Amino acid sequence: RTVYVNGSYVPEPEAQISIFDRGFLFGDSIYEVSAVIGGNLIDNDLHLDRLERSLRELDIPMPVSRDDIVAMQKTLIARNEIDEGLVYLQVTRGSEDRNFDYSDTLKPNLVAFTQKKKLQNTAAHKDGIKVALVDDIRWDRRDIKTTMLLAQVQAKRQAKASGCIEAWMVQDGFITEGASSTVFIITQDGKIVTRPNSRVTLPGCTRLAVLRAAAAHDLQIEERLFTADEAYLAREAFLTSASSFVTPVVEIAGHRIGDGKPGPITRRVQQIYLELALKQSAA
Ligand code: PLP
Predict the structure, then answer these.
(1) What is the ipTM of this complex?
(2) Which cofactor does the UniProt annotation name (predicted)?
């Protein structure tokens, strides 16, 4: 597979980054993951908006222009013949001798790679998934998409121990988000509920696209906090991310949601979002 490192396209085994890279030493870096369908990037503008915002919040300069990033993503997709899958990119603050403080003149590193992955009509999309609940032990700036992901690595591991592939995280009784996804529940009276964006969650790009599309189709949306107890009593539940699109959730911490099968509103949201994604892909 061909990967990208600071302006060069190289075979994966030849890719090199310094052991003094601050992403490696301090988690001092930002990443983004965009989906690819039919060889085209989905919601990529939203991902690049968020990339720019994350970098700005940490005072890391954009390593190259936004247009150059898109061109690079497209080159990787073409070279690796990605029909369906993901493009991962990471910007680190740069490499210099280890020191908590950093030089203001440091040059950021940009690396990227692709992953082939089936994104549509997976078993998870058809049947729904079970999720576990874990404590949200992350720092207070989760709105910045940093590579400091150890809490999520552990959360996924805990989820796996109870036969789940995703964990929903809980803070002060309220669900914040999934380890790598945004969470939604549907109330008994048919409202789609999701937590408002704030510093305690990552503002999901798929979340934004789904909320826009749902509003355009006159689905009822409520942005507010909700507890784990409310989630157990939900009529339906689902999660979103660039890599999982809209995935029904049929069990939360051993509590069956609705009748234990993906519900009609979730199906509608799946369909609306997929149509939108396929439209982008055809554009
Ligand atoms: N929340 C967290 C913590 C994530 O890591 C992710 C994606 O990886 C999401 C939410 C979903 O964001 P997006 O829809 O932009 O992929």
Answers:
(1) 0.99
(2) pyridoxal 5'-phosphate
